[in-house]
Give the backbone structure.
Amino acid sequence: MSKFLSEPMQILISAKRKIMKAIGITKSLPVDDKNCFISFETEKPMPESKDLLVKIHAVSVNPVDYKVRQSAAKDKELDEPKILGWDAAGVVEAVGDEVYYSGEYERPGCNAEFQLIDSRIAGHKPSNFSFEEAAAMPLTAITAWEAIFDRLRLQKNGENDKKLLIIGGAGGVGSIGIQLAKKLTNIQVIATASREETSDWCKKMGADVIVNHHDLENDLKKANIENVDYILNFFDTDMHWEAMANLIKPQGHICSIVENKNPLDLNKLKNKSVAFHWEFMFTRSLFKTEDMIEQHKILEELRLLFEEGTLKSTINNTFEGLDTQVFREVHQLQESGQSIGKNVIKFIA
């Protein structure tokens, strides 16, 4: 907008254009580059079909955010800024409902004042949660829920003689994954952590046993655990492939959310008849599957569990401002590998 227009005229034109502020990228730059993110104005989106228009109050940052930032504009500069961000909580403009959700992979993200979201993947915000506490949860909670109940097919209140190993227990998905497995099943939960603060965090989330993922097999033996029935890998598939193949019981199940960089030798699982599963939270919305509304149902069930106190938010750090420097700081923390729980950015006081 021209700097030569008077302020009242600027306000009038802005109102007619219905613009909003957003944070985006046009190049895939390292997070220490001051131009890593740009602040810009764009048209406020208009809802269609099953869309909800949400005014964003808070967002959280996940590994997918920085991975997309690092790859989306790697080969050329984008003609239009790409808005990142998936986890959000806010208010539906048309009706005033408070909602929380994790967006769609290929649509503009939530690092903006407003966002369109398919109603089939949104849920009512837990009434006992702040917008920040709610924004911390959708992507990680849905990922953990689908991994545990859709991929590994654990039964709620099922057998109590089984063991589940969660690799990456102190991360965003691990933090809620420990809670879900511990609170909703009778399984023994073993989580990995390598530092005192991450170990303490996993215990706080409810893990029965803590082991160091840097020496996973030996640490499990020290804990008198020879093998496990289920493995959830929320950290590094390549790094732990050999250990997982050795530790999983015959006819066991392994699920990973982290893409491999090197070929995986599936033959290591053959003689044990072990099943390997991928979990990608965006699958349902990306392919518009017939059961896409299941994510709405999951968020609603999670809401009840949050409201009754069975589960708690995994928020650990809160930042403030729809500002490029804030997003650089949070992305830097996320990329460091030292993050515990979830990092949330508050937009509205």
